[in-house]
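TL;DR need structure tokens for one chain.
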Amino acid sequence: MRNEESGVNPVTGRRMVDESVYSVEFKPRATGRRVIGMLTLAGIVATVYFSWRAFEERTTVDYGTAATIGALTIILWAAWAASPVTHIHVHGGILEVQRAGRTERFDLTSHYTKIRTEGRPRSNKWRVMIERPANSPFVIDRTMVDPRAFTRLLEAYHHVA
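>> reply
TL;DR here they are.
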């Protein structure tokens, strides 16, 4: 069997795939971060209102209410700031994951890249683990990417265990 028939590029030795999955960018999943951002915005408005009211009334209850809402707003802001958005892109068989200022790259066409999936794409426990030498596995779960679309892409590039 020749390399062209087996789906392997004779020059690079990499697996050839359909052009429709050659370059794919997944939409970031940021719904939770968006909700926390809206709650933070509402908390800022409430903090300003109750602080103004405390300034006008000058009672201990109003000061306590303004301080409590202000503290809750700070907690919401910290949760919003600590929840990074993950950007996942595949171009020519190279999976690139950008999250929290770091970029990880994996060659999906290489037989040296060990990929495992747990659960089915419809399951809440679905996740993909990519082995990294001398590090813990890199985990991609449903909070980062659409499980069905990502599984289809993995199957096009790599035999997933």
